[in-house]
Write a structure and sequence with these properties.
The complex is a heterodimer of chains A (247) and B (265).
Chain A lengths: L1 H16 L1 H28 L5 H21 L1 H9 L1 H6 L5 H30 L8 H25 L3 H17 L12 H8 L2 H14 L6 H25 L3
Chain B lengths: L2 E12 L2 E12 L3 E5 L6 H8 L7 E6 L2 E2 L4 H5 L2 E4 L11 H11 L4 H14 L15 H12 L6 E5 L7 H18 L2 E5 L3 H7 L2 E6 L2 E6 L1 H8 L4 H16 L3 H14 L1
Helix pairs in contact in B: 3-4, 3-5, 8-9
The chains are: A mainly alpha (247), B alpha/beta (265).
């Protein structure tokens, strides 16, 4: 337990010591929230969807968590380049423990980012239903753990930063756009709904939206089981690749 | 069974390049073993395989009775290592780096606190314990790295050029600490160095590797006797110098040369 804790703690320390990371990763979600929120607001209202900021905010919180989580895998590549990875790999600690410590650390950072975006969205006019609070936090954590594990898995297969960036950009956009973060899934063409239902982020956004403003597409339990299941799968997969890693 | 390290027919190939070529050797429990060789001879590659972070192409390694490929976790519980190149976290302080290591290796809290203080004082970094490592000079990082490697007391201690770039005072202090560990706790020490007088003074046994092959093995006295030289340094130059001339014609070297030429273009 101590070993997982120290790996987790290291990541939090690194996060709080890097001010540019703190600020940089908030700018993109903020831009989406303001530009799309106010840009599409009137149309959404006219179409009978109600307040768009209200609908959009959970999606943008999900987006902030998605990007922070996925890119937390980059730290593995930094650690490899700066040599610190060796220090961890020769230590008498199981690869699963390293994977869990790293994932929890990255996830905590991502959830903090999500909370910051949540606070900003409150300033912009988002009004959640207070009674569902704790559930939203749970979904934030599930999204974060899932994508941290995925990011770490991918990073453990790569050696250079450029390749990682490329794959991440290739992943982030489709995951985000096809997740129903920006628009309701109800009433979309069948093919689109099928695609959205294989995007794990859809379940995260759905759960987040359901717990913050009510109205779920897949159902709470489905959201929870799908997210938890895929997160576990990536954790196991990640520790497998981790154990195969050579330096 | 008093061999704590057993290496049998170990080979590592990177594509066509044979970095380690069918080597076998044993290290006895409690021994101080010097693994010497010119740059690029295969020392670090061998250490990487011994310490589970690189898989052998062929051959078998047993550490503390455990197979390195089949039982990596048990092997990792048996050794500690000071790496040749940096493996510190720049964004953490000196103390945090030590603490991280201590916890990862399960050193109990009380012993951990005592040893961190003792070792950081030993390498004269105690005053700087709260500074981020990224603000350290090369020599300070090196000292911290060595101190960190000595924080837990394993059965086998690997030291890949532990005293590189250190001043004689620090080098002496570190060696007397290592010697003491070896004597008091029976820790086996496996080290590489380019300081031949260090190897001659400290090592019970020496192996010299060149072009991926072990060319000689024995006590420093054996080596001097076999080469009819006065010091280990002379013996080393005698042996490896000879070897380079002989090896120049082999295909690996030709390929290496071609590669180098290719890079230049």
């Amino acid at each position: 337990m101590m070993k997982i804790y120290i790996i987790w703690l290291r990541q939090l320390k690194r996060y709080f010591r890097s001010k540019s990371r703190l600020i940089g990763s908030i700018i993109q979600p903020l831009l989406f929230l303001l530009a799309l929120g106010f840009g599409f607001g009137p149309i959404f209202q006219k179409a009978g969807g109600g307040n768009y900021i209200q609908f959009l905010a959970p999606g943008i919180i999900g987006m902030a968590i998605l990007t922070t989580s996925l890119f937390s895998g980059a730290e593995i590549i930094w650690d490899r380049q700066f040599g610190f990875l060796k220090e961890m790999l020769v230590a008498p600690i199981s690869r699963l423990e390293i994977m869990i410590g790293r994932t929890l650390g990255g996830a905590t950072v991502a959830v903090l980012q999500g909370i910051i975006v949540f606070i900003i969205s409150l300033l912009v006019g988002f009004r959640p239903q207070a009674s569902f609070w704790p559930l939203a936090l749970i979904f934030m954590f599930l999204i974060a753990i899932l994508f941290c594990a995925l990011g770490t898995t991918i990073a453990s297969l790569l050696e250079d930063m450029q390749g990682f960036q490329l794959i991440m950009n290739f992943l982030v956009m489709p995951l985000f756009f096809l997740s129903g973060a920006l628009f309701p899934l109800q009433g979309l063409p069948q093919i689109f709904i099928k695609i959205a239902s294989i995007d794990p982020l859809s379940y995260g956004i759905d759960g987040l939206r359901a717990s913050l403003i009510s109205g779920t597409h897949f159902g709470f339990l489905t959201d929870f089981i799908v997210l938890g299941g895929i997160a576990t799968l990536f954790l196991v997969l990640g520790s497998y690749f981790f154990s195969k890693m050579e330096i | 069974m008093n061999n704590i390290i057993e290496v049998k027919n170990l080979t590592k190939k990177f594509g066509d390049l044979v970095a380690v070529d069918n080597i076998s050797f044993n290290v006895k429990k409690g021994e101080i073993f010097a693994f010497l060789g010119p740059n690029g001879a295969g020392k670090t590659t061998t250490i990487k395989m011994l310490t589970t972070i690189l898989h052998p192409t062929e051959g078998q390694i047993k550490l503390n009775g455990f197979d390195v490929v089949k039982e990596p976790t048990k092997v990792r519980q048996s050794f500690g290592i000071v790496f040749q190149d940096y493996s510190l976290d720049d964004e953490l302080t000196a103390f945090e780096n030590m603490e991280f290591h201590g916890i990862l290796y399960g050193v109990p809290k009380k012993i951990r606190q005592e040893r961190i203080k003792y070792l950081l004082k030993l390498v004269e970094l105690w005053e700087r314990r709260k500074s981020l490592v990224k603000n350290f000079s090369g020599g300070m990082k090196r000292r911290l790295e060595t101190a960190r490697g000595l924080l837990h007391h394993p059965k086998i201690l690997f030291l890949d050029e532990p005293t590189l770039g250190l001043d004689p005072q620090t080098r002496n202090l570190i060696w007397s600490y290592i010697k003491n560990l070896n004597k008091e706790e029976g820790i086996t020490v496996f080290f590489t160095t380019h300081y031949m007088e260090e190897a001659e003074k400290m090592a019970d046994k020496v192996a010299i590797i060149d072009n991926g092959k072990i060319i000689i093995e024995g006590t420093p006295a054996d080596l001097k006797e076999k080469t009819k030289t006065q010091s280990l340094e002379e013996a080393f130059i005698n042996l490896t110098g000879h070897q380079i001339r002989e090896e120049r014609a082999n295909p690996v070297d030709r390929m290496r040369m071609r590669r180098r030429a290719g890079f230049r273009r």
